[in-house]
Amino acid sequence: MCRQPSRRKFRKLIVDGSAITLDLNIFRTKFRKKDLLDRDNRWGFSNTRGYYLGFKLTLVIEYPKLLPLCVLLYPGSPNDSSLFEEIMDELKRRRIIHNRDTVIFDKGYLSTKNYQLGVLKYRTIPVIYPRSNFDIKKAFSKLCYPLSLYSRHVQNAKQIYENLVSILARELRRWEDFLEIPSTIEDFFKLVKDALSLKLLHRYSRRAVLKFICIDVLLAGIIILTGFRSKKQIQALAEW
Question: Domain range for residue 222?
Answer without folding.
Answer: 11-78+198-240
